[in-house]
Amino acid sequence: MDVSEVEESSLQLDEKLMRFMDQLELLEEKRATLNSLIEQGWFSMSKARYSMGNKQVSVLQYASEMEPLVCVNARMQDNGEVQFSTERPTQKPSKESAKDLRPIDDIGPQEEGVRRRNKPKKEKTEKDPREDASSKKAPEVKPVRKREHNLQQDPLKWFGILVPQSLKQAQLSFKQVIELSAEIATLQTAVLNARQELKDGLKNKHAAEERLSSSARQGTVPSKLRVCAIAHC
Amino acid sequence: MTPAVCSSFSSSPADWTAYRADPLRSVRFSPLHHRDSVMAGRGKLIAVIGDEDTCTGFLLGGIGELNKNRKPNFLVVEKDTSITEIEETFKSFLARNDIGIILINQFIAEMIRHAIDAHMQSIPAVLEIPSKEHPYDASKDSILRRAKGMFSAEDFR
User: What are the distances in angstroms from CA B65 to CA A61, A71, B10?
Assistant: First the structure.
């Protein structure tokens, strides 16, 4: 019956609303925690800057090449919500990273390298000057590649070998912020999903009420039910 | 093709022609493809658009990616950074399929509010965070405004 349909949809709407409110409350709490952790991180960074020097903790210290130490997994669930979770991948073995690396263009003139003074004449005439440069390049490239294996190094090392404890605390705070960001992203999608469900539920309820009132006006609904329908509307 | 798939085809050549012409046939008939499957996005990055301290902090946390082959996943916004550059970077992050979350200072988000409000997809998720000079204001957050905005006078009739 239409009246039971309206009552059922009202109950469902109430449940969805309660869940939505709970999610909003949880989101606000996590936001507050996130904000305080970020502030803590900035404070620690400022302390590190005070002890190390203003320019020692800045954009100038960023590495020229970086690999992410943390990534996020996004799983789309059947109800349309997305679940985010952070993951810290293990360091790649050196062989794999060597394969992945492409040769890097060396900056700076190659010709100014050390020259062989006692080179035999035959070799000089046969070899191209380019080949000369490339053969000199070969020993230079290997040590560069070895350095590149450490792309996944701790970002703390950008700021020096011995860093103050405050910078390590800043790193710890921001790591916690990153974990919390994934949780907040999940909650945000859940909140928006719940909002959409509530909207759809309200539309269905209004449609059911309209059907009920129109059938009550036409006289197809028994008198008792007509009274209930009018009370609901 | 699996036997189950074979049985769904009739013997007519038209079905086979359609199957061969289907560009997604390797996906459709893959045993891993089914409608309610969990779409696991593996190893997406976290992008940051923020001031120097924000970016430095998150890079310390280990989210940074920068190499010659790919564009960086962060943008340090300084006093002379134009709004166009910020908007273009934000849109480029949205277009990339390897970014799962975008963290952006709220005062920077205010500059490109129209672009953030236009983003309706779940991935990448956009999180507004405070900055040193501008504390977080929930009333300006796009997500919370969308969530709270559903309560209009009509809903309570």
Answer: 15, 10, 51
